[in-house]
Write a structure and sequence with these properties.
The complex is a heterodimer of chains A (about 140) and B (about 230).
Chain A: H1 2-23, H2 30-43, H3 53-61, H4 63-66, H5 68-72, H6 78-118, H7 121-136
Helix pairs in contact in A: 1-2, 1-3
Chain B: H1 2-10, H2 12-33, H3 40-54, H4 59-70, H5 73-79, H6 81-86, H7 88-93, H8 95-120, H9 124-130, H10 137-147, H11 151-175, H12 181-203, H13 205-230
The chains are: A mainly alpha (about 140), B mainly alpha (about 230).
């Protein structure tokens, strides 16, 4: 019964989210409204974590299965997709590598800069580590 | 024989049973081979399409039952708030690195898709279908539907992105000298959603946590900015 209660909370948020999608004229899917609602609920403790986490973890675990039906629908448009295969592949590959590189470099740059500025224990440690690394070489 | 076939394919359990069974087969193959490309979702889809084509069964007959599985997609996406909530400590610890890194990644994704879309001469419909390709399928499908794109194109691009991110994550981090575990996780999750995150989890706990946090943050940032980029082509 505990599990049913948890599912009921999650479905209830999904329902409110679909209503929001209907009422708010923005190009945002219901699932995103629901995600934000749930996060706000958890942060304000209106929804205690232990009241939803069992069912939530279950739903996330089975998520790949939920994508099977939409992915199988590829078979209904093989002809269209065949023509687009090259642009889709090139764009996917190039942008994935670019995004990974840029995200990683930017966040690493920000972290190292703030370490240097604060001069806190972590930055200090890194400096010492670099020094010792240098002397070993 | 024909009537038995009809009775089978008209049952709503047909689509459900072959989906669940094929996923089990996919899981078993991945466990045996340990190949990234042997992803259970990809494998089960290939097997199901094969079965439907060989037996000459319509997608509609399959979807008649399989749609009940798909209905759980919205509650599952809502549930993504739970792991995000658990990882809020990381956002509080490195707010600038998390938002700065993910935001630049999201802009890079859409900027590069825009430029390559121009180069390939894509139509508006094709272009908006590719825009959400780096984010999790749950949010990506919603964006494409809302923008009037082709969901199939989005799904294929998301699959290619995820598999590539998973395979190439370590080499890309090495090549661009991304060494901080936090930065590695953010990079992998922002670029290649849940499939990349399985790799990040193998690399370490911090990498895994940052990567799964990036899935949700990058998804939401994409939802916010996509309508601006959608105007460009």
């Amino acid at each position: 019964m505990k599990f049913i209660k948890q599912l009921a909370i999650i479905f209830c948020i999904s329902l409110i989210a679909e209503l929001m999608e209907y009422l708010i004229p923005l190009p945002v899917a219901a699932s995103v409204y629901g995600l934000v609602l749930m996060l706000v609920g958890l942060m304000t403790r209106l929804i205690p974590l232990e009241k939803v986490e069992g069912a939530a973890d279950f739903l996330i675990e089975i998520m790949p299965i939920l994508f099977i039906p939409p992915t199988v629908s590829i078979m209904t448009s093989f002809e269209v997709l065949k023509q687009l295969l090259i642009p889709i592949t090139v764009i996917s590959v190039v942008s994935t590598v670019l995004v990974m590189a840029v995200t990683g470099r930017v966040s690493q740059g920000i972290m190292r800069k703030s370490h240097k500025k604060s001069g806190g224990s972590q930055g200090q440690r890194k400096k010492n580590y670099r020094k010792s690394g240098g002397s070993q070489r | 024989m024909e009537t038995i076939r009809e009775a089978l394919t008209q049952s709503v359990f047909f689509g459900m049973v072959i989906s669940l069974l094929c996923y089990q087969i996919g899981l078993a193959v991945q466990k045996k081979t340990k190949w990234t490309i042997a992803n259970p979702l990809l494998l089960s889809v290939v097997i199901i399409i094969g079965i439907l084509m060989v037996l000459d069964i319509d997608y509609d007959a399959y979807y008649n039952g399989a749609k009940y599985i798909q209905y759980f997609l919205t509650p599952a996406t809502v549930s993504l708030a739970v792991p995000l909530y658990r990882q809020l400590q990381y956002i509080r610890k490195y707010p600038a690195a998390v938002f700065g890194g993910i935001a630049s990644g999201v802009l890079m994704a859409m900027g590069s898709i825009f430029l390559m879309g121009l180069a390939f001469g894509l139509t508006h419909e094709q272009y908006v279908s590719l825009l959400p390709k780096s984010i999790t399928t749950a949010i990506g499908i919603g964006i494409t539907e809302k923008m009037g794109g082709m969901v199939n194109v989005t799904i294929i691009a998301i699959c290619i992105t995820g598999v590539l991110g998973n395979i190439a994550a370590e080499s890309v981090c090495r090549l661009f000298r991304i060494q901080e575990p936090v930065a590695k996780g953010l990079a992998i999750g922002t670029a290649s959603h849940a499939l990349g995150t399985t790799k990040a989890m193998e690399m370490g706990e911090v990498e895994g946590a940052m990567s799964s946090l990036s899935i949700v943050v990058a998804g939401i940032l994409t939802v916010i900015t996509v309508s601006v980029f959608a105007e460009f082509i």
